[in-house]
Amino acid sequence: MFLGIASFELRYQLRNPVFWVAVAVFFLLGLGLTASENVGIGTPGGVHQNAPSAIAIATGIFSLFYIFIVTAFVANAIVRDEASGFAPIVRATPVTKTQIVLGRFAGGLTVALLGFAALHIGMWVGTFMPWVDPETIGPSRFADYGWNYLIIAVPNIFMLSALLFALATIMRSMLACYVGAIAVVMGYRLAQGAVGQNLELRETFARWEPIGTGALREATRYWTQAEMNTRLVEFSGLLAFNRLWAIALGLLFLGLTLWRFSMTERAPSRRRLRKLARAEKRERESAAVVPTLGGDKVVERAVPGPHSHRIAAGADQPWAAGSGPARRRLHRHEPMAGQLGLRHLRLPDRLARRRNGSRHFLDHVAHDCGFLRR
Fold first, then answer.
1. Which residues lie across from 292 on neighbouring strands?
2. Reported pTM
3. Distance separating alpha carbons of residues 168 and 180, to the nearest angstrom
4. DSSP H or E segment with residue 31
5. 34: which of 88, 99, 211, 348 is 20 to 30 A away, CA to CA?
């Protein structure tokens, strides 16, 4: 079941246009880093655009901003069922909480990792552009890209994905996830600026900040130009501790998600309960309005409230018709009976929120339900 959920999530996200837009954006960013002199990440002069150290720094910096793309992949995986109304169907199946959480997370994480690989592909392709100065480009080696992707990108994306997955599970809101992503980026940049060149805090920041850019700069601080152009960053010392710390944070956030995720339906919030109470009150007030009768048919019915209007029944459409297409249309549209004073009429939620009494809205309702507006 775990593999089935993960493969479904993977297929779903690969068909999502957001994935391909993210791939295109990060491919172009990588292409610009190596193919354009106007794009840089602050590497010292004389260091090749595709040097191992430059690839490592670019990977760390762009993985932080990749958090906004991760939100669309990973957080959406856990919020989507609730937003689409599919969650009750999922809860009715024999799938367990662990299977659905880990399956969704694995599928979203895989897509996020695939999307970020476009940055390195773009950097590699940029080295072959005909206008690039050969003096600024070194040898293109797969190990330079693969090693930095493994030790920098994978832990970062895993940690950020687990963080947003936990936030989406707790808040059940994509807006809250994007706000959280902005807070992470802003908080990291503020902390980085506060540390600055403070020697006492620099090493502590490099050890505990989970993105790894500080640890990378500490690991390469005393390298010569030749070393920066040829030497891979070693997985040892401060950098190794920092990478393991990022993975540990990711596991902690994932454990929090497993603990907080529930297969039972959540009770409505206080705000939702107040909205339901107001809607029920309006419905009771509408039901109390006495209709204008013409023989055995409803000729007209007033709708109370600030946007009062009167609804007239068509000559060939008794409002309480017991069968036929009009009756089926009435049953198909529910939540707005109180607004129009029609006890059996309910409209979709997106129309129920449009209570401004506009001509377009009322004409749409009248046409769909066989009524004529005066």
1. 300
2. 0.70
3. 10
4. helix 17-35
5. 211
- What amino acid occupies position 267? A
For 127, the 3-state DSSP assignment is coil
Q: How far is CA 11 from CA 3, 5, 16, 103, 104, in A?
A: 12, 10, 9, 13, 12
Instruction: Identify the CA nearest to 13 among candidates 113, 114, 108, 87.
Output: 108
Q: Is 370 left (phi over 0), alpha (psi -120 to 50) or beta?
A: left
Token digits of residue 334: 């529910």
Question: 35-44 b/e with 16+ CB inside 10 Å = b?
Answer: beeeeeeebe
Using CA atoms of 53, 55, 61, 65 in order, give the dihedral in degrees to the nearest 10.
Answer: -170
Report d(CA 231, CA 237) in Å as an integer.
16
**Cα 22 from Cα 25, distance rounded (Å):** 5
What is the distance between the alpha carbons of residues 156 and 149, in angstroms, rounded to a whole number?
10
Give the length of the chain.
374
Give the pair of three-digit tokens for residue 362: 């009322």
Residue 173's pLDDT is: 83
207 within 8 A of 242, measured Cβ to Cβ: yes
- In the numeric block, which tokens belong to residue 280? 């029920």
Task: Please give the Cα distance from 6 to 1 (Å, whole number).
Answer: 9
CA distance linking residue 23 with residue 3, whole number of Å: 25
pLDDT per 10-residue tile (average), the chain, 374 residues = 85 90 94 83 78 92 92 83 72 80 90 94 92 86 93 95 91 87 91 78 87 89 88 90 95 92 68 81 76 57 51 44 44 42 43 44 46 41
Q: What is the pLDDT of residue 264?
A: 67
From CA 51, how far away is CA 148, in angstroms rounded? 11
The reported pLDDT for the residue numbered 351 is 43
Helix (H) or strand (E) holding 298: strand 297-302
